[in-house]
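Suppose you are handed a protein chain with no further information: no name, no annotation, nothing but its sequence. What can you learn? This example shows the usual starting point.
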Amino acid sequence: MDERAKELIAELKEISRSSPKEELDEKPTRFPCKRCGGTGWIFYRMEGVDKACRCPECREVRDMHFYLRSSGIKPENYEAFTMERFKTDNIMAYEMKKLAQGFLKDPNAKGLGFFGRPGTGKTHICIATCQAMKREHHYWQYRREIQRIKAVMYKNLDRYDEMIARVSQLPWLYIDDLFKGAIKSSEMQSQDQQIMFDIINSRYVNRMPTIVSSEFPLDEITRADEGIGSRLKEMLEPYVYTVRGENRRLRGA
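A reasonable first move is to predict its three-dimensional structure. Written in structure tokens, the prediction is:
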């Protein structure tokens, strides 16, 4: 991670400690740039017509700032979960990182998925991949977000449809901990099943790029709901990895 990215993370931490809503609604203007004067735009005249283009000197910094602010990932997690910090001290971790790097190099890739044992670096490698893409992406923490949708699904159908549509249309969505607490003995809770089918089916039909991590193997998800599992499989392949091995958090690694 370069120095400017670290400065942006520090700035976002300060914003989150003060008044996040007020600050985050403001346009990002704190980028000193000699070429554009901090506006983010270069104005010029060509063949008698006034034109404008984004400043090439500070464009990448501004884009990074936007990604950090809009993704939903905590600034401290951006700082901690980088490709450089992902430990490849065993074959499994090496293969996880190699798969993510292959995904990043593939311009036609529409999905990436890590499934299996908790504490094996799935969230780390997925957030690191989101950062490395350097494009707009959104973090969707399953347990938290699914409860918000459940709260309205039988009370306000219009609001439910709005929430499903928003998640379905997000560019580069990362779903973290998919079906956490929702599958027991290959049985999926009905509310989770309906909500996630609506979201995954919409993203599947519209070929919306999606990254997924889950402690459940993909074949177990498929046993619980073949429609969801088969769609996930097609969306994510060939960038799918089943994680095995010990839980790093339990051994303090």
